[in-house]
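Suppose you are handed only these lines of text.
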Amino acid sequence: YSKQQDETPAWKKVNYQNVYKDIADLLEDENYDDGSYGPVFVRLAWHASGTYDKKTHTGGSGGATIRHAPESEHGANAGLDVARRRLEPLKQKYRNISYGDLYTLAGVVAVQELGGPTVQWRPGRSDLQADACTPDGRLPDAAQGADHVRDIFYRMGFDDREIAALVGAHALGRCHTYRSGFDGPWNASPTAFTNFFYTELLNNTWVPKKWDGPKQFVDKQSGAFMMLPADMAFKTDPRFRTYIELYARDQDTFFNDFSAAFAKLLELGVKFPEDAPTYRFKPLD
Ligand code: CCH
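From them, the structure of the protein bound to CCH can be written out as follows.
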């Protein structure tokens, strides 16, 4: 007898709307952090993608090399094993999804379900092995300033406006001393996607935190919220500051710009199949 060969590529066998729903179901957990895995999913999607180098066309989310050592062990990726473990049951359930598609889609679901803009997304990444891991040092160092931030993001192919929009994701989540060494949330609602990164940055007086840890800033009034040295650079650098002021007064423009820049980030360096459709998922009710 002749064995029928199934030639449908794996990525076509996945119902991504169902994956979206299943990721959304994994967000909430009252025992984790501020009650949501959303922020750490966004950080996973970003670190999986932000290794891209436009000159050598290496890195990016395409191969999902962030799951392999040594990349998984890079200092910047500390704590992201938590997000990968949370998503692993979905890789088992949807065997045909690639890790690259799963991690990036998790970032999209988190942004949308935490109240952010819709973000276009395409499937079709195919996973690579550990030999494709990127070298350490491709992600930004929070202890540094505007020049460093520009070096890192220009290497990926972003301009100042896109960089200023992307860092608005620091409305979400918090820093953990046992991951990065830094400590605390950026604002009072770390599980809501807002333009608060910009409003807090501009409207507060930020003073150095008095502690033994790495240099960071706290708001003078309550001491409850934080900024990284790299965050402060967006306030002091005049070209970045123009966009910080824009996004602080105009949440719609922030949402539009963030959506476009985040979609671009998740696709850096990826060679999509020609017939991969673009999705814009509806947020769930
Ligand atoms: Fe970030 N980020 N990020 N970040 N980040 C951290 C946490 C989050 C920098 C440093 C840090 C982006 C850009 C930058 C998120 C999304 C984005 C932490 C704390 C550091 C340090 C990690 C910890 O301790 O858990 C620096 C430096 C830059 C740029 O210069 C961009 C771009 C994005 C997404 C678009 C999110 C979300 C978090 C919170 C994670 C959590 O677990 O709550």
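What can we learn from it? The chain has a mean pLDDT of 97. The CA atoms of residues 9 and 97 lie 10 Å apart.
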